[in-house]
Design a protein that fits this description.
The chain has about 170 residues and is an alpha+beta fold. The protein has one domain: Histidine kinase-like ATPase, C-terminal domain (Heat Shock Protein 90, 2-Layer Sandwich), CATH 3.30.565. Helices cover about 40% and strands about 25% of the residues. It starts with a helix and ends with a strand.
Amino acid sequence: MLQHSQAGSGSKEPTNLNALADEYVRLAYHGLRSKDKSFNAEIITNFDESLPKINVIPQDMGRVMLNLFNNAFYAVNQKTKKAGPDYKPTVELTTFAPPSGGWGFIVKDNGIGIPDAIKEKIMQPFFTTKPTGEGTGLGLSLTYDMVVKGHGGKIEVNTKENEFTEFTITLPL
């Protein structure tokens, strides 16, 4: 909640977002593994190595990535509990240069997906589908504020319940 109330938590600086994304996907993965030793997922990275550094607030973009990765790993972990032995939990991270310039990244998982009935609510503060004590409902709200309000970027969500969720973040130069 403190993060939500803070405006402009840092200054923009040239940042290699490929390196930041690589660091935070591993941090999120190992964070969940430390809580649940049975958790496992394949991480697929597709980094566009030709991307330039981009002026962002690194702490904010790291928080955005951590929120998205945590949600993706949570979704595949939930599906693992219900799916048969043939299910292979996967989180995929892709970086790219949008046609309009700037920088973009996609976080895609093959987890439980987001039901259409709640898709419009997921960016609202305090909205969560997680059980009490597991989520505050602030992760995607903070993500929206940092990407859209703080960096002038866009967030797109593509999902199909019980199949996948894909978040695409684009940031202008």
